[in-house]
Amino acid sequence: METKSYTAVVLGAGPGGYPCAIRLGQLGVKTLVIEREYWGGVCLNVGCIPSKALITAGKRVEEITHAGAMGIEVASAPVVNMTKLQAWKGSVVSKLTGGVRTLLKANKVDMLLGDARFVSPKVLEVQTAEGPVRVEAENVIVAVGSRPIEIPGFSFKDARVLDSTKALALPEVPKRLAVIGGGYIGLEMGGMFAKLGSAVTVIEAADQVLPGFDVDAIKVIERRLKKDKVKVVTSAKALGWEEAEGGALLHYETAAGKQSVEVDYVLVTVGRRPNTDTCNLEATGVAMEGRFIRTDDQLKTSVPGVFAIGDCTTGLMLAHKATHEGEVCAEVVAGHPAHNVAKTVPAVVFTDPEIATAGLMEHEAKAKGYTVKVGKMPYAAIGRALTTNDTDGFIKVIIDASNQRVLGVTICGSHASDLISEAALAVEMDCEALDIGLTIHPHPTLGEGIMEAAKAAIGQAVHIVNA
Q1: How many other CB atoms sit within 10 Å of the CB of residue 199?
Q2: What DSSP state is assigned to residue 168?
Q3: Does residue 450 share a domain with residue 369?
Q4: Catalytic residue, candidates 66, 363, 443, 463
Q5: What DSSP string describes 38-87?
Q6: What is the value of pTM for the model shown?
Q7: Could you tell me if 309 and 256 lie in one domain?
Q8: Do residue 135 and residue 282 come from a single domain?
Q9: What are phi and psi of 292, to 5 degrees?
Q10: What crossing angle do the helices spanning 17-26 and 319-333 adopt, rounded to 10°?
Q11: Is 443 a catalytic residue?
Q12: Domain termination site, one of 270, 294, 313
């Protein structure tokens, strides 16, 4: 068996692994990255990127449909050619995954495609198309990612039961779709299919969709789902399904009793689980927290020379969190005094409208014992939002009443995903509300709303009535 030796081996080339490997290469560390299936990981291939491409297409259909409000008359309803849409989505994915391989090569990182399993903490055996390869390393970074959770009675092997990967590859827009799970993935994909023409039913076990999010944002999303004719059933438990004439019959239970809905597909989006059971991780002896690998603020595990980043570690399962951890980890492996001490990891839900948060949400700040003041700027009062005819939502700045420090920002509205980075910087730098309020924002832009919300938190807004 061929044996390869490296200073660092990165196991997994997703949004945590490949940036880690690139940074290691930049730092002059002899590095190998091993990937089982997708260069770029789930995110680039069957997650973040393709889902946002299809979500954008759904939003575009809606914009065309309602263009009449601006005096733009469309002769007929838009028609979705799913074959062409999937081809366009595929082209986006190909450009990005090709870019990953190019960057790894440019930074002198070796690549190996195969299924790797630990033999010991710093030795892996990789099954490749050309045969087994033994890999030895001074440092190993585990970045194996996660996969969708499968629930009893809904096997992803069944053609009618979809995980997010299968749903993003459908060759046609389903006429009827059930979504089990009203979290961010379920609402993103359910909302997208509704805009493309599906009759969507969302089944959520909790008493509201998007559990844990700002209640004001949830109200905005619920109104839009209703407008898009998405049926939402909360406090409901999915029981199972069976084949019916022309489709599937999904059974679920609420306080009112057992009920059923006829659908073409059932999309299960109840969360994700780490892939720590796929690489014989037990051979390393690293300490675990349930299925997750325990790490410190340098991404070190309990075993010297073994590191872990991304979805297989504790904390949020977000691509940008994994990327940041990967870069910090590379610095540590290279001998630099780096630590993962970020104050906030911003989060985005690509519903319509979008939700984005940085720092603490209002209810979280109160739960931590802060006396808070809140500045809230409705999109309907932002000139730029009116010019785009997209006025649902708000910008909310939460500050500590004792010193006016920004504790968090919640944005629910168009382009929230693009606006939240300013808020993340404000939280990271421990800004006061006036730091944002006295920063001149260009007009007319949606970003002005953050400035006004910050001023509103201290009673100085000029474009809305101060509370």
Answers
A1: 18
A2: T
A3: yes
A4: 443
A5: -TTHHHHHHSHHHHHHHHHHHHHHHHHHTGGGGT---SS-----HHHHHH
A6: 0.96
A7: no
A8: yes
A9: -100, 150
A10: 30
A11: yes
A12: 270
